[in-house]
From TrEMBL:
It catalyses: ATP + protein L-histidine = ADP + protein N-phospho-L-histidine. GO terms for molecular function: DNA binding; phosphorelay sensor kinase activity. This is histidine kinase. Keywords: Coiled coil, DNA-binding, Phosphoprotein. Residues 250-302, 372-424 form the PAC domain. Gene3D superfamilies: 3.40.50.2300, Histidine kinase-like ATPase, C-terminal domain, PAS domain. The modification 4-aspartylphosphate is found at D64. Its EC number is 2.7.13.3. Residues 431-646 form the Histidine kinase domain. CDD domains: REC_YesN-like. Residues 131-162 form a coiled coil. Residues 15-129 form the Response regulatory domain.
Amino acid sequence: MNNTPQLAAPNEILNVLIVDDEQDIREMMAILLKELGFATLLAADGFKAMEAFHRHKPHIVLTDIKMPGKDGIAVLKEVKAACPETEVIMISGHGDMHLAVQSLKHDAADFITKPIDEELLEIALAKVSERIRLRRQVREHTENLENLVREKSAALVEMERRLAATQIMEGMGRAMTILASDPAAGEYFPEMPFYVAIHDAVCNVVTVNQAYQQRFGDRVGLSSCKIYERCGEPGWKSPVREAADQQASIHRHENMIAKDQTWLPVITHVSPVTGVGGKLELLLEIAVDISEMRRLQDELSRTQRKFERFFNTVPCAITVQDKNLQVVESNASFRKDFGEPQCRPCHQLYKRSDEPCTDCPVLATFEDQSPHQYETVVTTRGGENRNILVWTAPLADADGEVNQVLEVATDITQIRQLQDHLSSLGIMLGSMSHGVKGLLMAIDGGAYRVDKGLEKGDLQRVAAGWKTVRHRLDHMRRTVMDILYYSKSREPDLSPHALRGLAEHLAETVAAKASKAGIAFQTDFSQAEGTILIDEVAFSSAMVNILENAVDACLFNRNAEEHKIEFVVLSEDDQAVFRVRDNGIGMDQETRDNMFTLFFSSKGALGTGIGMFVTHEIVTAHGGNITVDSAPGKGTTFRVAVPLAESTETARHHDQHLIVE
């Protein structure tokens, strides 16, 4: 069964399936959605929800996460497996934030928390409605492109038919010879749709058909040469004269003079007719007007240039791929972002991978010869990650065989970033609030130990308790800074700092943690000269995050006999360079490509997925860039470069993010 909902027209009412085990909530949301202009379906549990989904194919599913029997996560997975285009919004309680994060990883469009805020619900529905309409626009764009290709292909076929007609002139000429010698054919000869003339052996016109006479006038008895535009040129022979002299068929392009004295481009074919003993008796001339064909050629050429300009200027990456997924044609937008295809497969160009995508829409189109849609993240040749919405359509040959697929990819990165920011902000704040709560409990425990130590005069207990308080306060500070930098954009509070002093402060912050973990921490600040303008709190937080990740990477690598971190700070040209190298577990290509993406973490449950995202935001806000060089089992090198004080003001707005193979 095809569960794909029809894409909404601009004014079409969208269908929303509401799934909640509480009847009051279902009915309340149904009333609210109807006021917002949506049609609603209601289901009391996950099983009834899937029955309604397969029966009615709604555009949007609004489901509670926690339900008896089949929960909201299971409904989300089944809906996305049956129809990836259906948008799913999750409803969670304040204690279900980990489930909300899990639902986003399964491609939920958004989530809202109970009690339901009507304004937030309206915003979430508006976002998914816009995505549905965006898909419709991409589909219409692709269909229009297919129609244009079909129209121009038909014009090309028509031109080829006209050219083919000129190639059968010789056979038709022989048929005319037979007709001319047959008394019964006299009544048909004047009606021939070509310009046909019969000349005698001395090259005078004997007779012509009606079309010839209407276009060129009554030329019977006149010299055969006079009708040609080049008649009289030194050394030039008319086609009729040349055929008579050589007693062989002649096929040439010439200009003939019409009775209104205009020039008519023709393809003329002259065949000699011999009598007894091979003596030349007559010459048969058949001329075809090619002015229309030239007009069509010029029009086709203009259309091809226009189509090529359209193909190359459309703001989408367009490719044509064969059954091996090799890109055989591409437009300028694709080549600009991903380089020359050189018949390489799309997964190498898009994702630098040797294997096709799991749900490749091109392979799906080859399989069922139907259009498919797919949303994914790709990497440009400059290392920039982009969200794209892909639409595929089959391209059939003259025999109806689909040997190629047209793929149109639209960059929706800005839309996706906005959606991620709006939908993830609430999740992040909720998740981090639980973390802050845990830190506060740890601080309470440390304060309790301090109080008891003071009460009993036990300074050792006081020191241990105070150490716990300081450690948790530092952790809380970094957590709050992450929330601050993600929740809103702001300019860094810049102040000058000596490069060497900053480096020593960063090393002192991390050295204790590395030493406690048994990791050799080596520093080199011998070339750290000059001053940089930074927001000390923010920039230090970003660098400490990179250094602590190096410690974690070493701890994860159980194969190394000795763990080591090198921290080098130096002045290089007009930049301050911070290099952190470890011999930890390393990263594969996918991890390197996605490490600065929000909520992406290679630490599993041990990571929040926002640390490196915030680090990248902080560095780029300072006009800097981060370069990563890593391989599995080979360790990782981070290189952070920010402008020295003299060049900071001109570089602060540059946003560079490079991934090195």
